[in-house]
Amino acid sequence: MKRPARILIVDDDPVIGKMLSRSLSRHGYEVETFESAEDALAKAEDAPFDAALIDLVMPGRGGADLAETLRRILPGLPIAILTGYTNSPLIPKPGKSGMAVFTKPVIMQELVEFLHTEVK
Q1: Does the predicted model carry a pTM greater than 0.85?
Q2: Can you tell me the distance from the alpha carbon of 29 to that of 42, in angstroms, rounded to the nearest whole number?
Q3: DSSP letter at 112?
Q4: Which of 8, 80, 98, 108 fits 52 for a cystine, CB–CB 3.0-4.6 Å?
């Protein structure tokens, strides 16, 4: 039996993290949620994840920096950047394979389609 895909969620808003976690769990994903980039990185170095959902703007280390770091330690990791900002210089440029940007409030079906397509 194939194990469920493991999704890393990083959002400094615990309400959003919980909402994403519940919704993705209902879709059959195994989810771990963190409120800081530092905590997420500590776990990512020890545990395999199949994809990451990262808030763009967080206190301390921001989402774009976290995404770059995760891509270095977990090459090819699909990453969805979540943001409430439609025009921000922090938003990674599109075109990187396995990376997408979703504007909050996130349409869950679009996010699930991204994961379904990107998680092998």
Answers
A1: yes
A2: 21
A3: H
A4: 8
